[in-house]
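Q: Can someone sanity-check these two? First one:
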Amino acid sequence: MKQLSSAQIRQMWLDFWKSKGHAVEPSANLVPVNDPTLLWINSGVATLKKYFDGSVIPENPRITNAQKSIRTNDIENVGKTARHHTMFEMLGNFSIGDYFRDEAIEWGFELLTSPEWFGFPKEKLYMTYYPDDTDSYNRWLALGVDPSHLIPLEDNFWEIGAGPSGPDTEIFFDRGEAFDPENIGIRLLEEDIENDRYIEIWNIVLSQFNADPEVPRSEYKELPNKNIDTGAGLERLAAIFQGAKTNFETDLFMPIIREVEKLSGKTYDPDGDNMSFKVIADHIRALSFAIGDGALPGNEGRGYVLRRLLRRAVMHGRRLGINESFLYKLVVPVGHIMESYYPEVLEKHEFIEKIVKREEETFARTIDAGSIHLDELLAELKEAGKSTLEGKDIFKLYDTYGFPVELTEELAEDQGFAIDHEGFKAAMKEQQERARASVVKGGSMGMQNETLAGITEASTFIYGADELTATLAVMIAENERVDSLSSDEALLVFDQTPFYAEMGGQVADHGAILDEAGQLVARVKDVQKAPNGQPLHTVEVLGELRTGTTYTLAIDTLRRHRVMKNHTATHLLHAALHQVIGEHATQAGSLNEQEFLRFDFTHFEAVTAEELRRIEEEVNAQIWAALPVVTVETDIETAKEMGAMALFGEKYGKEVRVVTIGDYSIELCGGTHVANTAEIGLFKILKEEGIGSGTRRIVAVTSREAFLAYREEEELLKAVAATIKAPQIKEVPNKVASLQEQLRELQRENAALKEKAAAAAAGDIFKDVKEANGLRYIASQVEVSDAGALRTFADNWKQKDYSDVLVLVAAIGEKVNVLVASKTKDVHAGNLIKELAPIVAGRGGGKPDMAMAGGSDAAAINKLLAEVGNQL
């Protein structure tokens, strides 16, 4: 067996498939682009779905990649198993309607067994296949695979809802009897038993059917273009080539584990209790890559996943005796491991370290808060005479404070409490069900559209043209090619067009199609890219259209110019964000409409009012500087040398357009722009908001819309000035401040009067003292305007020895407010109110000395007051 590093394995994979005519596709960002069905890029094929469903035709139908991926559906298993990871690398080779089963299997076998390549012993390889897929079985036989090494399995069929699907054949490596202590042998594969002997290293999916949930599998129709989709785990291959017991003893993880050894003073034992080392090594890899790709820790979505990973790693660090922030120190070691193929981790290490360290420090405070919460909870249980820590409370500590269950249990058991394990499991299951219900359904590929995929006629978009003559090359109505049409809706392709197809956040052009007589024959409502890249015009047909005929194509120039102003302003905004809040604020999506622009960007906190003011000033300064906007076409490498910034998620070809705005902004962009920033006129931010964990959004307007926005604000200020009788707008702030001070003074006077009234009323209430079980108590209904007045009563009550317990009830509006206060250890106010509140259809709680509740049944107030004595 060869000894190969992970970098050598990855490169050998790519080199082999490149030798078979495959284009090497770079690893995509972990944050999905234009795919709401995925939280993360979770496989090598996830970024290629547009090719498999036929919505885009690739330049080369043969593709290979090494794709960083994240899967977090069962984080708890990381560290417990030999091969479970949150972030991993999937090696893949793909055929989009080109080669199929024979070549995929033959070349796969060549890569695995040829001495020139991986050189695995043939007798160590086993293959599973779908029982009905006799073609794959026969192909393996033809390559010399022993029949005893071919295992039929019913599960070997890949499908996710409607769309491309098909049988798959998986390849396993036999690590030998040392990993089969019970000597079960081949039954481990035949019965699909989890084991460490036969390791799955590769899955070849033969995508040949359009899956249809409405019919049985045997009736699936064959795809017009059959595809090959494969995946091989780099971590598993590394473990085999490096003779590692688990994936963690490879060069992908051991350098991280060695750093953890230094930080903890503990030694990693491959045969001992090493779970904490594994969790930390795995999670910091995922965190480093995900943050580097623009995701940030937060309370929802992918942000919540990152926060959970970090907190889990921190707690395992504490189990190793590391009590200070340490994870951020592991970012650079991660970067060095992956540097040969993923240099971006080291390039962004300072920002990644900053985010990780800040999150660690925040969590340290959260842990302290969790400890206090647990201490208070256990004290309350003791006082109430309870001996079991309920599952819902354990789950709250786990979910809200990040407390590992075992830590909560250990601390509780030390104080003599039993643990409600089943209750915790039930709470955990309920949360998992909620999470599954909230996941966006989908993820499968769309059905292939043979009609659109079959459009091969050339079409060119002409930049700078408002109107031109063009020949109608293709016309599609009701998903069929037609030569003539005189009504309804159609899709059109011309040999050339001035209409911009929606792309890169810029909306499509609208406009008109005229015949030779200048008559309107169609109205263009939308333009999108066809699978082969041609501008595809969606039109409302108003007159006769014929293919092969020449027409005049005229865009709505006013609409185009308004969109261009917003598009150029978006570039200025992007550069201004870098200037004001940092280089990490990279684009995460945009929309340039004619009425407004919307810009999404990565940032870890809300942009302050002062920062927004500076950003707005920056953009307007560039507009008023009348900077020239220059576009040049060049190759991608030259563009990068020029310093052009590629936009998030965009795919660029060999030839690119570089848009330069003075010395202020330079970006790769295929859209249309104004010639000079002065054409934008004015820029105004309307709002800034969070739209997801680590992602912010700015909505802004330019030109006429910006003027109207300022005019609207001016009119509002004038209305305020009139209301408060300020002679001029500039006097409004001082006038408002004066009114606020007057209001505060009136509020102080009102509060003082309330206190006097409450004191007077309290004199009567506090005289009505009853007794039960040796305890003095006051239970009374009071007339107050708000719940705060009840606290005032309680404060007065505390000043003198009126009674041991006070219960006050007030009907305020449609609600019932209840207050319980206690001066004796024999009565826990929080527990008493839990017994009383349900009587008025309410609930509440609080501390031993003070508690409050809300209810809705005012008719039951007297019943509650009568019950107080029974509860003492």
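And here is the second, same format, sequence then tokens:
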Amino acid sequence: MKELSSSQIRQMYLDFFKSKGHTIMPSASLVPVDDPTLLWINSGVATMKNYFNGSVVPKNPRMTSSQKSIRTNDIENVGRTARHHTLFEMLGNFSVGDYFKDEAIAWAWELLTSDDWFGWDPEKLYMTVYPKDDAAKKRWLEVGVAPDHIIEAEDNFWDIGEGPSGPDSEIFYDRGQSFNNLADDDPENYPGGENERYLEVWNIVFSQFNHEPDGSYKPLPRKNIDTGMGLERVVSVFQHAKTNFETDLFLPMIHATETYSDGKKYGEDAKEDVSFKVIADHARAITFAIGDGALPSNEGRGYVIRRLIRRAVVNGQKLGVDGAFLYKLVPVVGEAMKAFYPEVLENSDYIAKVVKSEEDRFNETLTDGLNLLNALIAETKKAGQKEIDGAEAFKLYDTYGFPVELTREYAFDEGIGVDEDGFEAEMQQQRDRARKARNSDNSMGVQTDLLIGIKSPSEYVGYTQLAVDDAKISDILADGAIVDAAESGLVQVIFDKTPFYAEMGGQIADQGDVLDADGNVIATVEDVQHAPNGQNLHTLKLNRAIKVGETVTLKVNEHFHSKVEKNHTATHLLDQALRNVFGEHTQQAGSLVEPNYLRFDFTHFGQVTEADLAKVEAIVNEKIFEEIPVTTVETDQETGKKMGAIALFSDKYGDKVRVVSIGDFSIEFCGGTHVKNTNELGLFKITSETGIGAGTRRIEAVTAGDAFAYLNDHDQLLEQAAGSLKAQQVSEVPGKISQLQDQIKALTNKADSLEAKLASQQAGQIFDNVQTVNGKQLITGVVQVSSMDQLRQLADTWRQKKLSDVLVLGAQVGEKANLIAAVSDDSIKDGLKAGDLIKAISPKINGGGGGRPNMAQAGGKNPAGLQDAMTEATNWLANLA
């Protein structure tokens, strides 16, 4: 067999399908764009959904890609099996209504067996087919597959619910008897069974049916091909690796980890090998995910990253790694993958910074978690129990990132187990919550040919003119059908040429009118979107009937258009200003350009200060005042990149692109409309800045007249404030406010002092009232204080003076009731817990609470029940065994 690197194998696959007329598609970002059904891009076809459901027609119906993907549904198996991964690459070839089974099968056989390509031994290849798919079986035989190497399997039907579906054919590679882990007569010992010998390397889906809402299957108007070949598996075959991990995709990270471990070597201990594999796998996943803009957080994809980092750190500790190390693997990942993903190595410093920050934080948390685990083990043994409670084990996992296997190992060392059923019950509840939180939309829409069939040419001329006198109506859609004429209501129309901008790249669509030859408005343009074949599709509200072939005048609302293009140009200035202030790692994460304001989302790891915003705002205004010409050229992508143009990773660009330059300050790919000179923006003002997710910030801003109005409103507010403060000049306002703050502080200190004296007097009376209950000294009382802090101060005084065994105090603060319970250290040793006490008495105030064994607190909505709570505290202590 050929000796090939992973880079060579990937490129060979892509080159093969390029030779068959396929366009090589770039690997899309792991973070889905405009797709709420996916947490991550999890397959090659996930990036092709708009093509397969018909909402967009590809320029070439034949496409191929090597798509990075993330799946975390079985993360616990990573490292324990030969082929489970969180990040993997899916090689695929796709046909959207073009070729079908004959070509897909013939090309698959050619790629796998031809000496010009993979050159695998045909005798080692087996194919499974759907029993009713006679055409696929016949084609495999025709290309040269032996009859006994074709196996029928009932589960060879790809179906995810409503949407495209169809039979599939899986390809298996026989790795030989040395990999056989089953007896010869085992029912799973066959290609397609659960075994190690026959490795599935490719799945070819023949998408030919629509799974209808009623459960029926109807033929698709256009049959499609969707295939998936796992790169990691194919590399393991070429490189004669026992598992995917002994390949050049993982070994660099494994060997680097060896240098950080306490003398551990991969391959010497099976248990330690699991940790090496987990670290290598997770290092790849977090590096790529953070590189694509995702950041650690407590929810969604950010939680996935945090969980992966924590699992890797814990496994590092098992190998004796001291301190943060995972961030050091980031450039190792970048170097290993640079042939196809050079951007990872280019951004490795930023990615490593994010990882190290998370590692440092978790290493602090890990210490707390270990302390909690040790306390939990001690408490379990003291109670005479043989297992750690499943809910407590889950808390360790969910709150501190402790994998249950780590809890199990620590517990085992102490001679106890873990309630696995209880843990799994908590895990299932979490899965159910996550499932309900996910969007229930289908991950693949049902195919429709209504708009796909419209191929009338339509020219957009809005870059140079905002009115067209001789536009001809090419197509009309009304009530879900293509019609020759429409009389009233809302309709969708395609013109042979149009000045109306279709919504794209965050810039909203133009508005305006459709006029007849006499200048009468026959319709208003309410929206413009792109049709599947690229035409501008206008939504019109009709004033009179229209018909196909009619010539009309199209006129854009110039004032609306002008305000939008000012704000759009401002986003370009803002984008570059943010890079100047925060660094090149900052990327646009979305935008909305309206006539009255702009919204700009960007990635940034860390806080944004007022000083930072002031710098950004100053840079943008400086470029406005410099009166820089805004120029646009149309060229190809490669030339645009050489010009230094910035491309949004989430956007798809055609063969021809527009490069918008604002002097040498900003150069971007952009299909939107722009001013001719930055001086048209007049003024730029940031109105708000907030965080909208882990590592993603949002700026809202205004320009021109809206910026002036914003500043004018604030000026009036400042004048009002000056009047209220009786300041003669606006400049005196800060000083007046400072004086008021000093006065408030003095009054607050005086009030606090008086309250402290009152509380001390009350404490003296209450602390003298000690009763003995069930052999324990108890102090209870309802006091007048202004906050929970003062209750805690009284409890601290009680503890310092050792006035009794148990203390219970209550107070009404506003309309709410507060309780605090405290237990002396000696009484804790006797089994008393403040948390148990507070739970027993808090129902009297219609509340709840908890805390530590030595102190607990509660809040409720029934202050009238405070005295009853004191009585209940006495009863609780009296009834203790």
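A (reply): Looked at the second one. Residues 6-249 form a domain with the BirA Bifunctional Protein; domain 2 fold (CATH 3.30.930.10). The CA atoms of residues 302 and 678 lie 38 Å apart.
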